[in-house]
Specification:
The protein is built from 15 helices and eight strands. It has helices at residues 2-27, 70-75, 83-95, 99-110, 116-134, 214-227, 244-253, 263-278, 285-296, 301-312, 318-330, 337-342, 350-364, 373-387, 391-404, and strands at 35-46, 49-59, 147-158, 178-192, 198-200, 206-210, 235-240, 258-261. The longest helix is centred in the first third of the chain and has 26 residues, at 2-27. The chain starts with a helix and ends in a 9-residue tail after the last helix.
């Protein structure tokens, strides 16, 4: 009985698909120079099975441009997969640690047979659109939160050899094994807890990623902030790690924000100052590091710089200490941690660092992985969209773009 019902449902779905394809073909108006060539059968796979669908094929005689299937665009097909199945394939392919695991998961949980190679193909096809969607021009959003946070960090993704030619790295031979990808996030805060510690709003974090240089990534992150309500937020706070590139990004793209250097990175650099001053094995090393932490939390950064310089004046290590102090000298205004805490701000960049591990590391930095830039970039764009809870918004836009290919007038630039 169940088998008969299932077959009947399958037949109905196949019939509906064919009817929709016939309607799309009947309504299609060929563009200038296009000619109808033939009717071609495609085996379409959906969540509930496979269905043969016949549709018209148009081409440009004498030109090498790819042909066009009006029904495919109207139905939103992705290389023979329905939008619903394509969405599921992309979710699994971007979420699982490998395409092979995605194949097995689809088979075991839904009885859906799609090979790992085909999953990769769909993910890369849709991922290109996901990257473009991340970089779209922002429509200014509204933000009712007292504080809007923007944060960014970079991490290395292991790459295939051809992607690393001519790149310098941290290996002993000076070569690189990874390429840096930037991850940016935006989130909001409405309150603090009983101890006055800031509380991030639930599910308020959205992400963007890019392998582009920091000068291109900064404007991309600013667009995301505008989308989230940069212009209407009570206060905007930029959380970074103090790296020169991110510092410059803050100056160019978020100049009106409160800028904070992550406290834990500050402590790491404090350790470098103390190491240059007395050595890491000195019995007072930990004691001094603890003192730096307490003084930094009291807005005493300038006093620490002055005292350190006085202590090493005329000593052999003076030059090394001054070099290590440069990090603090450049970021005095971004290290007023006592003031920032009193205002109820986050002083740590844990949100974006966690994102680097979960959004990027969990998929692209597994043992034995080596990526192309486009391969990793497409996957990460989809993961950012998933983690930002914008799956439906993205796919609605993609379906609209697909169907717009049938318009008699070209899409506006």
């Amino acid at each position: 009985m169940r088998t008969a019902v299932f077959k009947s449902a399958n037949a109905l779905v196949g019939w509906l698909l064919q009817q929709a394809a016939d309607q799309a073909d009947a309504q299609y108006q060929p563009k200038t120079g296009q000619a109808r060539k033939e009717r071609v059968t495609l085996e379409v796979q959906g969540i509930f099975g496979r269905f043969p669908v016949q549709r018209d094929y148009y081409h440009q005689p004498g030109k090498e441009e790819p042909g066009h299937y009006p029904a495919d665009a109207a139905l939103g097909l992705e290389v023979g997969y329905t939008p619903a199945l394509a969405k599921l394939i992309c979710l699994e392919g971007a979420d699982e640690t490998t395409y092979l695991k995605a194949e097995r998961h689809l088979e075991r949980t839904g009885g859906i047979s799609v090979s790992a190679r085909q999953i990769q193909r769909v993910v890369q096809r849709v991922g290109r659109g996901a990257q473009a969607w991340q970089e779209r021009q922002a429509l200014p959003g509204k933000c009712d939160a007292p504080i809007l946070y923007v944060s960014a960090d970079g991490t290395g993704v292991p790459m295939v050899t051809q992607e690393l030619k001519g790149r310098r790295g941290k290996q002993p031979d000076g070569k690189a094994k990874t390429r840096q990808v930037y991850l940016g996030c935006v989130f909001t805060q409405h309150r603090t807890d009983e101890q006055g510690h800031p509380v991030r709003d639930y599910e308020s974090t959205t992400y963007v990623s890019s392998f582009k240089a920091i000068d291109d990534f900064g404007p991309l992150l600013r667009q995301e902030a505008i989308r989230r309500g940069l212009g209407s937020a009570g206060k905007t706070v930029l959380l970074i790690d103090g790296a020169a590139g991110l510092e410059n990004m803050g100056r160019l793209c978020f100049k009106d924000s409160v800028q904070i250097v992550d406290f834990y990175h500050a402590l790491e650099h404090a350790g470098k100052v103390i190491e240059a001053l007395i050595g890491k094995t000195h019995p007072d090393y930990k004691k001094r590091l603890s003192r730096w932490a307490k003084q930094l939390l009291k807005d005493k950064i300038q006093s620490l710089i002055k005292q350190t310089r006085q202590e090493c004046a005329g000593q052999l290590q003076a030059a090394a200490v001054e070099e290590a102090l440069g990090y603090f000298v450049r970021n005095v205004s971004r290290m007023q941690y006592g003031t920032f805490r009193a205002a109820g701000y986050f002083i740590g960049s844990g949100v974006v660092e966690a994102g680097c591990k979960t959004v990027i590391g969990a998929r692209c930095k597994q043992s034995g992985m080596f990526w192309s830039e486009s391969g990793a970039g497409n996957v990460l764009a989809l993961r950012c969209i998933h983690s930002s809870r914008r799956i439906e918004e993205f796919w609605k836009n993609r379906l609209n773009e697909q169907s717009a290919r049938n318009d008699a007038l070209a899409l506006a630039a």
